[in-house]
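Why this split exists: single-chain examples teach little about how molecules sit against one another. For that reason, every record in the complexes split bundles all components of an assembly together and asks for one structure covering all of them. Below is a record exactly as it appears in the raw files.
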Amino acid sequence: MRALLTSKSTKVAVFLVCLIPLGTLVWRGFHNGLGANPVENIQLTTGDWTLRFLVFTLCITPFRKVLNLSDLIRFRRMLGLFAFSYLCIHFLTYLVLDQSLDPSAIWKDVAKRPFITVGFLGFLLLLPLAITSTAGWIRRLGGKRWQMLHRAIYFAAVCGVIHYYWKVKSDVRMPLFYGALVGILLLWRLGDWFFKRRSAAGAKLSPQHVPANPAQ
Amino acid sequence: MLFRKATDLTYADVTPKAVYLDRRRFLQAVGIVGATALAGKRLFELAMPSRTALAATKFDDLIKSPFSTTEKQNSYENVTHYNNFYEFGTDKGDPAKNAQKFNTSNWVVSVEGDVAKPRKFTMEEILKIAPLEERIYRHRCVEAWSIVLPWIGFSFSSLVKLVEPTEKAKFVAFQSYYDSRQMPQGRWAGIEFPYVEGLRVDEAMNPLTLLCVGMYGESLPNQDGAPVRMVIPWKYGFKSIKSLVKIKFQSKMPPTTWNLAAPNEYGFYSNVNPHVDHPRWSQAKERRLGEIFRRDTLMFNGYGDQVASMYNGMDLKKYY
């Protein structure tokens, strides 16, 4: 398993798999397969994939610890950047095709409509994470500060779910599904943090006790 | 396109009607067949949404209407595979998929309430009320997309005259058919069924208000509200109730489905109005299907000459 996770070809394979949704969109686009409203189709598809990749990214840490597969970390940045890439297409179709790049129309829309505001906020939260995703930036910021900054993904994912929930007219099943996934993944982190704090406190009280945490 | 050769023409996924109606689509279909011959049909089937054929009755000798627009019509394919009919699911492609087996035989429309001659109409009787007209209308959805299509029917007022509303009748309430066994997807729609709608009597009597039995020269496809529906072209699409079974004249303003679901978002009138936004999105512009950029939305969807006078003195921001 370890060999599979650390092999270079696995990373290339995952990269190519992550491109499939984009490839399918482009292929359909050239073959009249995007239905009656292609712009909307592209927006909904890229929005969906942004949320999915955010969920995949948020899965990495719990899976590393629960399954004891620390090498999964090699895929986290790539998945996060794919989330951001699909978000960029999503956002660009809005800016160009919906609003014709009219700054006053865009500003009015962002300021007036909560579902646009919260989506835009999600984009703003992810933008610095994409920029500082390189090894150079981790060094410049220092690991602790970098990690703090990158917790913004939690809020971005919540923004994405709210954006979706406020967008639908009445059938809220899919937004609730993504909401549940993000909720579980964030609650797991809260539980993990709480458990660690307690066991750290326990270790201080009784020095003989070694906290059983296989992931460390 | 890259593909030059069409080897075998077994393009079973596209309805033949859409192909012969639209030469461009046909040529594209030929191109796609060529592509699948080269790239492998399996991949094609995986990546393309499926298309479904529809049975329909043809109508002859349709009267051309002065209300028709000369704007470019949307294709039958687009109109029938992209619409809302929440009883059959909330995705735009769901009605086309899930309404295929919808049974509309022995259809009866009951007209009741404050009328001198309440009665039930069979479909055969409805088709004989007035000569059938073709009316090419703009249709604007509250979700900010729009289409142009040729409906078939006659002014709703022709039916009203047969039942003779009394003095008390100020409003007309409409009700859609609902059967949870035939429409199992409806339970997830998030709105109450049966779907109900309403108009003021003067709105119902406006000559633009259409009792509609067909489109594109044929009877209505199941997914577009077969066998009989309303079309009110100056109001958002959800006012044009589908698969109509009950019409009731009454003195009180009737409840309407979307207003019940979200009263701050959908009013009783729901006239197309670019100056009154939906709380969650702008109504100033719309995307005509087939176009990339949005175009300006017209007041009353461009039917102001025929309908604006009915709303004189009304604050349309308050009565949205």
